[in-house]
TrEMBL record:
This is Esterase. It comes from Mucilaginibacter ginsenosidivorax. Residues 1-18 form the signal peptide. Keywords: Signal. It comes from the Bacteria. The keyword Signal applies. InterPro entries: AB_hydrolase_fold (IPR029058), Mycobacterial_A85_antigen (IPR050583).
Length: 569
């Protein structure tokens, strides 16, 4: 029997030959220490851009395959073989023979010794907002054209010879300032210096009114490298018009510039409320922001933002410094964050305007019911498995499935380290597993849901459940402060969770919620409550929309004696 098994092994085509990639690091890069990270092999059928920029969730995505690297010693090489896990094709052996442009990237990991006692290896953000293909310090090879044949038996050699350069910090201007502080709370959790930052838009007349203190308008969203949507100069008359694939508009770049200039004119005009408008920077080792809450895996970001960063901004830039004079607004990730921060810190903020929020009820985790479904990827029956959709357009045409997007994340990073959407939800919402990484809400390969993790999510981060559960304690602090907006054809099915949230909010009493929930007819992601403008315009007007809305409402929620006049010059 042993001889027969050996004979089969020797003649099996699967084991007999396979084309592989041998990856070397050029000595000129000076990498003198052992390296950890995720080694990514990129293959593209075209050279429209470098292969590292052609991986996406859409149908046009090119190929990526990944393998974990632990302790890559200087002067040695790495072999990427047929077992490398990939997307959209799962294994390298499945790639059709043909000509490809190929490239490799090493997404570097750093070792963290957590307060919990665990040691983890993660990619620290380096100012790029957690993008593996643009992270400063990552090393990569120049694209080359090759002929790939999975049935061939030779090695193809790739040489890493380039490094992504540092990102230059934005400079202060008359109106836009920048702040960065080391967080004591986060430094203690992560076991190394950790920072929070913000881009700050000063009100007109800030220097001319040195005795005025201002309310704080807090915009939450993805990593803002600098404050966007504000420009003191008119649109460039020589700007070459671009085409927006999302909005099917030619010249959208000019529209963006015009809106930024119009906002400047409003901001400095006579009728605009004078506030400090800020955009928070809280990129971390898992994502481009923290979701602004305390998390078992990310640490106490909610406390750090609320009790460290916000007071420091108010101290340096003459904020009023009271909970009644702070409010929040944001869309998508930012929409979830402002609702969560309002719920978890009900007296520290006085209003949240949540547009197209990420799932606010996990009965509708996009197209998954985490409390009732068994599998995150498929609708199952006795005889078939129907893939769950992940993305659609306003007509309902599906662009990607849950399994496809999760497969992409798993190729880019194991243990929730891809920097992708589902991985960050897992990192924020899950308990920490025994190895120090987030506990999976579902098996990333099969989609099987872990009901114990779902139960943890419910009690800690299901915002609808928490509002209903805690209403007797927080209701008087929350009434009138919650505003939610979403399109009824949201690209990521986020309206489904809002329907459930609305049903719960309407039934709250002692006191009544007095909350606002509004829907945009056939509106996609990320509709924010403006029925007068198309989505491609209203998405550029968060500051001017919600600052004016809050200023009109605040007289109904401000405490007796609050200063509502000095900052309205």
């Amino acid at each position: 029997m042993k001889k027969l098994i050996l004979f089969i092994f020797l003649i099996s085509p699967f084991f007999a030959s396979a084309q592989t990639f041998r990856v070397n690091i050029d000595p000129s890069l000076g990498e003198s220490k052992e390296l950890d990270g995720r080694l990514l092999l990129l293959l593209s059928k075209n050279n429209k851009a470098e292969p590292r920029f052609q991986v996406s969730d859409g149908a046009e995505s090119q190929l990526v395959f990944g393998m974990d690297i632990n302790g890559w010693q200087p002067g040695t090489s790495q072999l990427i073989d047929v077992q490398a896990y990939g997307y959209p094709l799962e294994r390298l052996k499945d790639v059709p023979a043909g000509d490809y442009y190929v490239q490799v990237v090493l997404h570097k990991y750093e070792t963290f010794h957590l307060k919990t006692g665990q040691t983890v290896k993660l990619p620290m953000d380096r100012g790029e907002g957690q993008h593996w293909n643009m992270a400063p310090g990552n090393i990569y090879s120049a694209p080359v054209k090759i002929h790939f044949d999975p049935a061939a038996s030779n090695e193809l050699t790739l040489n890493i010879s380039k490094v992504i350069p540092p990102i230059e910090a934005p400079k202060d201007t008359k109106y836009i300032k920048h702040i960065k502080i080391q967080s004591k709370l986060l430094t203690e959790f992560w076991g190394r210096p950790m920072y929070l930052g913000a881009n700050i838009l000063l009100p007109a007349g800030f220097d001319e009114h040195p005795n005025v203190k201002y309310p704080l308008a807090i915009f939450h969203g993805h990593f803002p490298a600098d404050l966007e949507g504000f420009s003191t100069t008119p649109p460039d008359p020589n700007l070459k018009p671009d085409t927006s694939a999302r909005f099917h508009i030619t010249g959208y770049n000019r529209i963006v510039q015009q809106e930024a200039y119009d906002f400047y004119k409003q901001w400095t005009g006579p009728a605009f409320p004078r506030v400090l408008a800020i955009e928070i920077q809280h990129a971390n080792p898992y994502y481009d922001d923290s979701y602004a809450v305390n998390s078992a895996n990310l640490g106490p970001y909610g406390d750090a933002i609320t009790y460290e960063l916000i007071p420091e901004i108010e101290k340096q830039f003459r904020g009023i410094g009271k909970g009644w004079a702070r409010f929040m607004y944001g869309g998508s990730t930012g929409g979830w964050e402002v609702l969560a921060a309002q719920v978890f810190y009900p007296n520290e903020y006085n209003g949240c305007y949540a547009a197209c929020p990420d799932p606010v009820d996990f009965h509708h985790y996009m197209t998954i019911n985490l409390y009732g479904d068994k599998n995150a990827y498929f609708l199952s029956s006795d005889f078939k498995q129907t893939p769950r959709p992940e993305e659609r357009d306003y007509l309902g045409h599906v662009g990607s499935t849950m399994k496809e997007v999760n497969q992409s994340e798993l190729a880019i990073g194991t243990r929730s380290r891809s920097g992708g959407q589902f991985d960050i939800w897992e990192a924020v919402f899950s308990p920490m597993d025994k190895d120090g990484y987030p506990k999976r809400i579902y098996d990333k390969n099969t989609g099987a849901i872990d009901t114990s993790v779902a139960a943890y999510w419910r009690e800690h981060f299901d915002l609808t459940h928490i509002i209903q559960r805690d209403w007797p304690k927080i209701g008087n602090s929350l009434k009138g402060k919650i505003h939610i907006y979403v399109g009824d054809m949201d690209t990521y099915y986020l309206n489904n969770a809002v329907y459930t949230a609305e049903d719960v909010l309407k039934k709250l009493n002692n006191p009544n919620c007095n909350c606002e929930v509004d829907y945009g007819d056939r509106a996609e992601h990320c509709w924010n409550g403006d029925h007068t403008q198309p989505n491609y315009i209203s998405r550029l007007r968060y500051h001017q929309m919600f600052i004016k809305k809050w200023a009109a409402e605040i007289k109904n929620r401000a405490p007796k004696g609050a200063d509502l006049k000095s900052w309205r010059y």
